[in-house]
């Protein structure tokens, strides 16, 4: 059901011919109101794509009526011409759906450094506007795929109101945000301020904790649009919980579909002196190429976990570190614990627990293994 | 000629049976004086192997008479028993070469988390002591190899004096230090303070700038021992230059022999506001898995370079970044520059230049590509 699960939203997508493959590559999401309140978070990469720069400005007044999204080209590192292209996308969308350009957010994904074929993009916008419907959420989710093998949607409901969403992302998945575009919609009635707080809190512990390959994109965007058409204004905590549910669901779908991955790895750091410590340790472990290779080879190599922990500034005593892999405490007090051959790593999901024994804080980071398929897929991508 | 190129040093190595392969795995380097001045730098990983902890203490008085090194086991994350093993290695070496244990440095390399077979280690120390000779530098360099395909030695000379050295390291190569053991010797006459300053300055711009796979080891050690037997005391700048030459030579040999790598990549960052900025940007680029895959695939994907630069806190304007790959400025002003098909990436060596256009500082980081062979080698290492 995707972005049209919530009332008040229309979506539609087309094959605009931006992708050489001929797959669907252009989507529109339109908020028919009565409210147009919106919030967004963007990549923390300082090299930001033209559509990110545009959407940031469009969102400044907390109001978005439509989102135009394309796959097949990121419109990143494209200079003044690329900025102009993003503006034209907003203007054409505004014209097609009868709003003003500053109410239109623009999202692009694909190869960096290449200009978009604007003739096809603008024709695609017109065609997609003709297809807008309350059932268009699914086709919009399909059109934003790049190397994704499946499209990603999620829905959560409160009493009388709904939050729905779609996501794309399979590589360049790392903090700040994973490399992804996400559009969330709700028919709840909420101000831009409430939406912003709900979105930031939800993203902080979901998309921001995905670190598949340590590479941060130039295009990451998460938008939350509210139509208010349910007529219900849920409490902020209630709304945040629903947004969090949808974000977590989509984040785990990203990890499950990461390029070339054969394992989904949950790194849980407990006993930390602070949440920041737990996140720092979790990220360091999640980014350790040698460990990611070992887990790919189904080798419970806890020494590589300790060596990753040792590079952080977190509070811990190296002689009091415990590590469990799939429930087996293979490392106790910074040295060998239970026998490593008790660990079964044959499944796709791996649970890694690090106990820093320095406090009560914790965090979870999601990552993937490092595989020859990842190397293959990413050494051939642009050619 | 390795560690015995400088006068006053003996070395010897044996097959102690620590490695299952039966390859040489234990080496001694002995300083016969008249001076025993020494300096050392160690991993900045906070999880430090027992031999690192031991050697740090032994070096505290600026004096080392002998070094015992083993491959086949890192003696890292081995608890109080591992600390005892490192102490026994120093004591046995002291006994065999007639010095005191606190004059003996200990270096171990191999798998983390496994205790050493101490019966074999101590018998090996006795046997290696019997083989000590002024021609033993080469066999010592061979005995410290782990996944290295070749042994690594280097020599530089001043008027009447010499600096020689050996190194091992092929994976877990990253800052702080690369995963490596290095022993440097000189027959120059120099105080521990002068040696320490020369070594730190040389390491700072050589080993510390190797970042093959972003993984920092628990065992990294670089030692510099001076016998003074040339009777010549070179000026500190002269000595530093020779030590730098040997360190740079060995560092480039590490990059050339990195596990599974098919490319040696030099990332030169110029136009930086500070050296720290240049190093931060260089490291970020060198650690970007997606870029390393692209270069493996001989794809001049400068967008991934920009996306890596954007994650740093260095001073730059995203619309004024220039990037050259093998001399072709494929990115100008943060957007596409000269045609990418002008770039020839078929050779083993790749030169990547980033111009931040924000100042006069620069730095070079050496790294490798990311290959299916790296994944293969590191998913099977401990099993």
Helix content, binned percent of chain A? 25-40%
Q: Please name the fourth-level CATH homologous superfamily of the largest domain in chain A.
A: L-amino peptidase D-ALA esterase/amidase
Radius of gyration of chain A from CA coordinates: 21 Å
**How many beta-strand segments of chain A?**
15
Query: Mind telling me the CATH class of the largest domain in chain A?
Result: Alpha Beta
The tally of domains of chain A stands at 2
| End-to-end distance of chain A | 35 Å
CATH topology of the largest domain in chain A: L-amino peptidase D-ALA esterase/amidase
Strand order of the largest sheet of chain A: 13-12-11-14-10-15
Tertiary shape of chain A = globular
Assign the CATH architecture of the largest domain in chain A. Answer: 4-Layer Sandwich
Biggest interface found: A-B, 68 and 67 residues
Which segments of chain A are poorly predicted (pLDDT under 50) over 5 or more consecutive residues?
Answer: none
Characterize the quaternary organization of these chains: homodimer
Summarize the biggest pleated sheet of chain A: 6 strands, mixed
As a percent range, the share of strand residues of chain A is 15-25%
Please provide the ordered H/E string of secondary-structure elements of chain A: EEEHEHEHHEEEHEHEHHHEEEEEH
> Please, what is the average pLDDT of chain A?
89
Number of helical segments with 4 or more residues of chain A = 10
Structural class of chain A: alpha+beta
């Amino acid at each position: 059901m995707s972005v049209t699960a919530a009332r008040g939203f229309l979506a539609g997508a087309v094959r605009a011919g931006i992708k050489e493959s001929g797959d669907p590559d252009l989507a529109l999401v339109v908020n028919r109101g009565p409210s147009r309140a919106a919030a967004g978070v963007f990549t923390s990469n300082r090299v930001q794509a033209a559509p990110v720069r545009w959407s940031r400005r469009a969102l400044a007044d907390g109001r978005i009526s439509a989102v135009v999204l394309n796959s097949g080209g990121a419109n990143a590192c494209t200079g003044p011409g690329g900025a102009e292209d993003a503006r034209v996308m907003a203007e054409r969308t505004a014209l097609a759906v009868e709003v003003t350009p500053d109410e239109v957010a623009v999202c692009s994904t694909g190869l960096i450094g290449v200009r978009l074929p604007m003739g096809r993009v603008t024709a695609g916008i017109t065609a997609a506007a003709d297809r807008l419907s309350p059932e268009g959420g699914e086709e919009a989710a399909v059109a934003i795929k790049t190397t994704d093998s499946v499209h990603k949607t999620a829905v959560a409901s409160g009493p009388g109101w709904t939050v729905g969403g779609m996501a794309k992302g399979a590589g360049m998945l790392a903090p700040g945000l994973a490399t992804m575009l996400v559009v969330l919609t709700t028919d709840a009635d909420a101000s831009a301020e409430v939406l912003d707080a709900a979105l930031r809190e939800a993203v902080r512990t979901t998309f921001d904790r995905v670190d598949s390959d340590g590479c941060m994109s130039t295009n990451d965007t998460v938008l939350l649009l509210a139509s208010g058409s349910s007529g219900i204004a849920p409490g902020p905590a209630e709304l945040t919980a629903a947004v969090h549910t949808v974000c977590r669901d989509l984040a785990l779908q990203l990890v499950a579909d990461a390029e070339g991955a054969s394992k989904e790895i949950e790194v849980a750091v407990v006993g930390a002196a602070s949440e920041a410590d737990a996140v720092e340790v979790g990220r360091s472990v999640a980014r350790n190429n040698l460990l990611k290779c070992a887990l790919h080879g189904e080798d419970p190599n806890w020494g590589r976990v300790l060596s990753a922990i040792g590079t952080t500034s977190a509070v811990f005593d190296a002689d009091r570190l415990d590590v469990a892999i799939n429930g087996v405490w293979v490392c106790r007090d910074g040295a060998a614990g239970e026998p490593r051959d008790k660990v079964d790593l044959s499944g796709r999901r791996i649970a890694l627990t690090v106990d820093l024994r320095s406090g009560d804080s914790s965090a979870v980071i999601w990552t993937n293994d490092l595989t020859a398929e990842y190397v293959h897929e990413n050494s051939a991508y642009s050619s």
